[in-house]
Design goal:
The protein is of the alpha/beta class. It is built from 16 helices and 22 strands. The strands form six sheets. The protein has a seven-stranded mixed beta sheet with strand order 14-15-16-13-12-18-19, sandwiched between helices. It has a six-stranded mixed beta sheet with strand order 9-8-7-10-11-21, with helices on both faces. A three-stranded antiparallel beta sheet has the order 5-6-22. Bound molecules: nicotinamide-adenine-dinucleotide.
Length: 503
């Protein structure tokens, strides 16, 4: 049932190495957030289709787990090459469905490519350990083995990077994978899957199913699913974590954030202002590592009027406008939610220095636009501070000391990212040491680690134990088997309690 009004038609699912037309009667509209035009429709996969996706990943896994790691790595080498060849094409698709400007869209794809590069080294990352003679004439060694079928559930805000955090590493480790991308921008993940097959990935090893809560729940409760990676909001992440672990599955859930940047009076003012603009409103604030709270220490507060001027110079626009600093929010509902939070902030007594509601972009009257918005006088009790806004809104707070700033940050329920701008090594060292947040920037506003580290949100920003996406992700997607081995060349009696002889 093809809808001819859409640019990309009705999306299939991706099962067994190719497109699989859904028989569902429920379709989700995928729209261009700058003008609401219909780009495609995504099917809500039926229960049978989710079952088929898992089954095909399970069957593919049973063969793939025996493929030598260097051969699996070769698929990843091909894949990173193909992603680079198709970088602009992927970024264009991504920009159309998310509204991100082209540079940002390219960055989204690029950060994913970096993870695939990491997966190219899978052989050395999945080596076990050995020790000869753990007891006399007994050797010990450990083997790293895949789990089976792993599942990824991803949010709208990085439709290339976040799926690529998950399936390349999981599959390089020898697993099968089922991806349930955000229903708001599923076009890019589908193209990622096609290119993966083109790179030589075996049919079925990666399936993509579309939908929402119902499809996610079907995956979380499927007996063949062994591990679940989730990235998204705190509310849904809590549900996913509870459901998956209740089913005794391995789960890691990367969720919401409220990231503070501390500005010391000895910081470089120019650097602070330009970085606050980029980190506060870049990607329309729809980044889990966006800075949403600027904490001015002491006389640094004098810079707030200049910050307001810098904010006022920024304007949003459509993805292919090279002058546009950022794009629209993902949906009309997201825009209304952000506007309501801005209004509530004004009612609660915060001083709105720049109000982005009623923002207009010429030629695009129905886009989900919110202009750069700046508040000062925000307190920890206000909704503006307590809620993750996920829009181009920066809240300024003022404190008298670094200790006060640290106490504020460490009381916040989230712990995804934070940064300090200072010229003082001692202040930077104290901050790095004392702050209870997992990703810390020193004169770097958005400290996203590269994939040879791991993405290490803390506290309310992460549920689970092993963090994605680099080294620890490889541990998440594998089991270690410890083998203790003895070969008899003479009759050696074991002790009465059957332990290995330690004579
Ligand atoms: P979301 O939680 O609405 O959706 C995420 C995924 O969950 C989607 O695939 C969606 O279909 C599915 N889902 C939605 N409702 C569900 C339900 N009731 N049951 C089961 N599954 C459901 O998140 P979003 O709005 O797409 O993304 C924005 C959020 O993601 C923000 O909170 C942001 O901070 C967070 N995020 C976190 C990180 C991180 O690394 N910590 C990175 C990116 C985004």
């Amino acid at each position: 049932m093809t809808s001819h009004a859409t640019l990309y038609g009705d999306l299939p699912l991706y099962i067994n190495g190719g497109p699989h037309a859904s028989t569902t009667e429920q379709w989700i509209e995928v729209t261009n957030p700058a003008d609401q035009s219909l780009l495609a429709r995504a099917p809500r996969a039926t229960a049978e289709e989710v079952e088929l996706a898992v089954r095909s990943a399970q069957q593919a896994y049973l063969l793939w787990r025996d493929v030598p790691a260097p051969e699996r790595a070769r698929v990843m080498f091909n894949y990173q090459h193909l992603l680079k060849v198709h970088h602009d094409e992927l970024a264009t698709l991504l920009a159309q469905e998310t509204g991100k400007n082209f540079a940002d869209a390219k960055g989204d794809v690029w950060r994913g490519i970096e993870v695939v590069e990491q997966a190219c080294g899978i052989a050395s990352q999945t080596m076990g350990e050995t020790m000869g003679n753990v007891a006399r004439r007994v050797d010990g060694h450990s083997w790293v083995q895949p789990l089976g079928v792993c599942v990824g559930i991803t949010p709208f805000n990085f439709p290339a990077m976040i799926p690529l955090w998950m399936f390349p590493l999981a599959i390089a480790c020898g697993n099968g994978f089922v991806l349930k991308p955000s229903e708001q921008d599923p076009l890019t993940p589908m193209r990622l899957a096609e290119l993966f097959t083109e790179a030589g990935a075996p049919a079925g090893i990666l399936s993509v199913v579309h939908g929402g809560a119902e499809q996610v729940d079907a995956l979380l409760t499927h007996p063949d699913v062994k591990a679940v990676s989730f990235v998204g909001s705190a509310r849904v992440g809590a549900h996913v974590y509870r459901t998956a672990t209740e089913q005794l599955k391995r789960a890691q859930c990367f969720v919401g954030a409220k990231n503070h940047m501390v500005i010391m009076p000895d910081a470089n003012k120019g650097l602070v202002l330009s970085n606050l603009v980029g980190a506060g409103v870049g990607a329309a604030g729809q980044r889990c590592m966006a800075i949403s709270v600027a904490v001015f220490v002491g006389s640094a507060r004098d810079w707030i009027p200049e910050l307001a001027e810098a904010f006022a110079a920024v304007r949003p626009g459509v993805w292919d406008d090279p002058q546009a600093a950022y794009g629209p929010l993902i949906s009309p509902e997201a825009r209304v939610r952000v506007e309501n939070l801005i209004e509530a902030g004004k009612q609660e007594g915060a001083e709105c220095l720049l109000d982005g509601t009623l923002c207009e972009v010429a030629g695009y009257p129905v886009g989900n636009w919110v202009g750069p918005t700046l508040f000062r006088g925000v307190t920890a009790q206000m909704g503006l501070y307590r809620e993750e806004i996920f829009g181009p809104v920066l809240c300024c707070m003022e404190v008298d000391s670094l200790a006060e700033a640290l106490a504020l940050i460490n009381r916040n329920p989230y712990g995804n990212g934070t940064s300090i701008f200072t010229g003082c090594g001692a202040a930077a060292r104290t901050f790095r040491h004392e702050v209870a947040v997992g990703q810390v920037g020193i004169n770097v506003p958005i400290p996203v680690p590269l994939p040879f580290f791991s993405f290490t949100g803390w506290r309310g920003s992460f549920y689970g134990d092993l963090h994605a996406y680099g080294k620890q992700a490889v541990r998440f997607y594998t089991e270690t088997k410890t083998v203790t081995e003895r070969w008899f060349d003479e009759d050696i009696p074991t002790g009465p309690n059957m332990t290995i002889s330690l004579r």
